[in-house]
Amino acid sequence: MTAGTVSPARPTLRFIHGWAFDAAFWDPLRAVLADWPQAACDAGYFGRAHEPDVTGPVIAVGHSLGALRLLRQLPDQCIGLVSINGFPRFSAAPDFPSGVPARLLDRMDKRLVDSPAAVVQDFRQRCGDETPFGPPQVATLRRDLAALRDEDQRPALAALPVPLLALAGGADAIVPAAMTRAAFACRPEDELHWREQGGHLLPVTDTGWCAAHIRGFAARLAQRT
Question: I want to staple 82 with a disulfide (CB 3.0 to 4.6 A). Which of 61, 102, 156, 202 is the partner?
C-alpha cells in the first residue's frame, strides 16, 4: 500500500448456523478469521435466540439451513453471501429429485415431539458431531424443520443481487454432491469450491480451507466498497 492510501473498511462477517446447532458452532472459524469484524446469530434451538445489531457493510455466512435463511432475507447492507454446505431447497420435488424425501423430515418431526434430544443427537451424529447440547427447544426446532421440508428459495438464489461464494463437501452425508450441483446450477458465474473428502461440518473439520476462501472473497468485496 502506498503512502497516503486509506485501507478500505472491512465488512462484518455475519454468521448464521444450521439446524440443531447454535452460535458456538462458528467458534473455530471465527478464531481463524479474528482479524475481521464479526457477529454470530443464534436461532434459539437450545436457549434464547439472538440477532446481533450490525451496522455497515455485511458479508453473510450461512451453514446448511443458515444459507437458506439468508436467501429468504439478506441482512441490511449485505455485499456478499457465503454458503457452506448450504442449499436453496432441501426436500425433493418433481423438478428437484436430488433433494431429501419429505417423508424423512416428517418422521423426524413426529419424533421431535416425544424424543427431542434423541432426534437432535441422531442428526448431529450423522453430521459427524459429538459435542453436548442444552435442552432442545421443540417449537423452534419444529418450525425450522418445516422450513427444510417446505421452503424453496431457488428463485431468490437465481435473482441474488450480490456475489456468491459456495463451499461444499464431496462426502457430505446431509447435502449430497448431486443436491449441491443441482441447487447452484443457476449461478455458473459465481464461485463453487469443493472439498473432495469434506463432510457436512466444513467450518469445523476444514476450518483453514474455509477461512482461506472466505478471506479471499471478503478481501475482494472490501475493495469494492
Answer: 61
Rounded to 10°, the helix 102-114/116-127 angle is: 130
* pLDDT above 90 for 223: no
Secondary structure in 3-state letters for 64-125: CHHHHHHHHCCCCCEEEEEEECCCCECECECCECCCECHHHHHHHHHHHHHCHHHHHHHHHH
The pTM score is 0.94
Cell digits for 167? 463451499
Look at residues 50, 62, 107, 106 and name the one whose alpha carbon lies nearest to residue 88.
Answer: 62
State how far the Cα of 147 lies from the Cα of 116, in Å rounded to an integer. Answer: 17
Provide the CATH number for the domain formed by 12-90+153-224 in this structure.
3.40.50.1820
d(CA 167, CA 169): 7
Could you please report the per-residue DSSP string of the chain? --TTPPPPPPPEEEEE--TT--GGGGHHHHHHTTTS-EEE-B--SSS--B-----S-EEEEEETHHHHHHHHSPPTTEEEEEEES--SB-B-BTTBTTSB-HHHHHHHHHHHHH-HHHHHHHHHHHHT---------HHHHHHHHHHHHH-B-HHHHHT--S-EEEEEETT-SSS-HHHHHHHHTT-TTSEEEEETT--S-HHHHSHHHHHHHHHHHHHHHHHH-
